[in-house]
Structure formats: structure tokens, C-alpha cells
Amino acid sequence: MTFMIKVPATTANIGAGFDSIGIALNLYLTLKVTEADRLEFVLLSDQLEGLPTDESNFIYQIAKRVAERYQVDILPPCRIEMTSEIPFARGLGSSATAIVAGIELANQLLQLNLTADEKVLLATEIEGHPDNVAPAVLGGCVIGHYDQTLETIRVPIDDLSFVTIIPDFELKTSDAREILPKQFTHSESVRASSVANVSVAAICQQNWPVLGKLMKKDLFHQPYRKALIPHYTQIEDTLADNVYGLYLSGAGPTMIALASQEQVNKHFDHWKEAFPQLDWHVLEAVNQGVSVK
């Protein structure tokens, strides 16, 4: 028995889509699973260095949790070769991909035959909200709401570049949440939700110029979290005339600019030269989520 689990990275929030909108991207967490006499994680990427290689590994803990959910006490032992292209604590869904990988690991080892909807619900219950885990399972853009029950709408994404700008420091989600306001007035809530509502409509119509404008008008998190990200305003000003818009991916610190391929081809080298201390990538949305071979 040998199989491969492949889970895409995700970008979440997308401006005003706080805790509710995510998009799968073409960076991957990959597990090669082989039957063995004992459990062993083999870490094959530098950024995985220091993670547990035994049962305390987060992915195994998720798999064990799923097994217990289905009244199974023991997971079959296996060797798991783990590779990741996704940086930790940068707002690209590294923990969500691990959750989805753990669910899929249990699904395969125990032959649970989980549906995609069941995987999304399990992952959302663990994560607390669907914005990262849902696209990691389903691919594309997923707009979701979770409050005892889960509702999701999936939208395929095509012909859009994600200019991904990664600082060289981590930003924990808990720290990024601390800086957010505890409440809004009614009028502030109406303004914030109207921005989010039209943002969703823009995504559904793939109207990227309108989405870009509205990302800058977000009131839920970006005005507060920008202060935690050095160079955010400078980068926004530098890219402003040549991208659709810039937003904080997840809790940050990664910033993503939405752009056309033509804009990227014309300006990408200049952007990199202007901010050489940052790690620049051009990513694409992927319309397939977790896969098994």
C-alpha cells in the first residue's frame, strides 16, 4: 500500500471576506504514505525541520481525532514522507493544509469513503471557520458561513495572477486577532458588510477591477493589521497603478496583489528590485483541492 496526498495552499479573507472567503493556490503540502511496521514521519523540506516525527505530529493528531470520531481506536502504522512548499505562519493556510491532510490520511487508512462535504465540515469544526480549509478540500474560491451548520458556495477562478509577497518574519493568527476591534457600531457594520457583499458579487462575476477597489475599502481587519506589516503602505503605493488591488492574506504577514498576466510580465522584475528584502512569487488559483493518487 502506497498513496500520495496532495493539499493546496490557500489565501483567505481576500479583503473584506473575513473568516469566510478563501482561494486555493498552487503551492502544496504532499504526503507519501507507505505501509510500515511503525509510524514514522520523514521530513523532506527545510521548513519542516523541527516538527515531530512521531504520534505527536499535528497531522497524525488530526487523523487520530477523525478515527475516534468514527469509533476507530488504532490507525494502521505507516511511513509518511512529508514535503511542503508552504511557509509556516505567513497567512498561506499552512495549518489548514495540515488539517485537511490529516483528515485525508484517516480517510484513506481507514477506508472511510468521506464525501467532500463531510471533509469540509470536519475541517471547519476543527479550524473554527471555513475560509482556509474549504478551498483546501474543494479547490477554487469558496465562500462559506459556519454557525452550528455549514454553508458553502464554490466559484472557479481563472485567468488571475496572485503576486505573493512574503516577509521574512512570522505573524501568529492569535497576535493578529488581538489588534482587531471588539465591536462595531450599527452604521459601521452596514458599511463593512456592504463592501463584503459587493466583493462577493465581484468574485462571482470575476470582475477583478471592482474587487481590487473594494479590497482597499475593507473595514473588518486590514486597517488594523497593516500596522503590523512593515512596508505595506509603500508596497501598496508602488503597485497601485499596475495591479487590481493588494490585500493581506489571512492574518498576514504575506501580502497578495491581484493582477493580470500582462501586468505581471511588464512589472514583476521592477517590483522585486524595489523590495529585494521580500520574497516574491507569482501564484495561480487551482480549481482542484486535496487529491489522492
From TrEMBL:
- Report residues binding ATP: 87-97
Catalytic activity, EC: 2.7.1.39
Query: Subcellular location, in the record's words?
Result: Cytoplasm
Assigned keywords, A-Z:
Amino-acid biosynthesis, ATP-binding, Cytoplasm, Kinase, Nucleotide-binding, Threonine biosynthesis, Transferase
Enzyme class, UniProt record, top EC level: transferase
Give the source's domain of life in one word: Bacteria
**GO molecular-function annotation terms?**
kinase activity
Report the transmembrane regions from the record.
Answer: none
Q: In which pathway does it act?
A: Amino-acid biosynthesis; L-threonine biosynthesis; L-threonine from L-aspartate: step 4/5
All copies of the GHMP kinase C-terminal domain together span 200-276
Q: Which InterPro entries match?
A: GHMP_kinase_C_dom, GHMP_kinase_C_sf, GHMP_kinase_N_dom, GHMP_knse_ATP-bd_CS, Homoserine_kinase, Ribosomal_Su5_D2-typ_SF, Ribsml_uS5_D2-typ_fold_subgr
Function of this protein? Answer: Catalyzes the ATP-dependent phosphorylation of L-homoserine to L-homoserine phosphate.
Family, according to the entry, reads as follows: Belongs to the GHMP kinase family. Homoserine kinase subfamily.
This one is known as Homoserine kinase
Please tell me the species this chain comes from: Amphibacillus indicireducens
The top of its lineage is: Bacteria, Bacillati, Bacillota, Bacilli, Bacillales
What gene codes for this chain?
thrB
